[in-house]
Design brief:
With 128 residues, the chain is mostly helical. The chain is 70% helix and 0% strand. It contains four helices and no strands. The longest helix is centred in the N-terminal third of the chain and has 25 residues.
Amino acid sequence: MTEPDPPSASPSPPSPAPENGRPAIRWGGVFFALACNLLLVTSADLVIGQIAPDLWLALLLRIGAPLLAGVLTALYTQQRGGMHAFIGGMITVPILLFYLFPASAPNALLAGALCAFGGAATERWLRR
């Protein structure tokens, strides 16, 4: 006959699952989105200012940089990339507004929104 385990040796209960079944937001992913968006948008603005390209290249750089930041965020986090990109992109809006685009609030808001869109579109594409 085997002896039952003493009560003190019982395994710890499993950690509770989130209510909605989704994985939690990782702050490393949010910080990645923030840093990537700031780096790419600032780099694109420097290129636009230094080279003085034509309108189409400036437009491509202005839209492509935050989209690429969102795509890279979704690939980095692999889960809930759209939310990570949204939170990181929206945190960058006031930073970009005060330091990079002091006279143009729509550019800062566009950069944050396009980062979120790039992350959400990539997350949707990865789920297929």
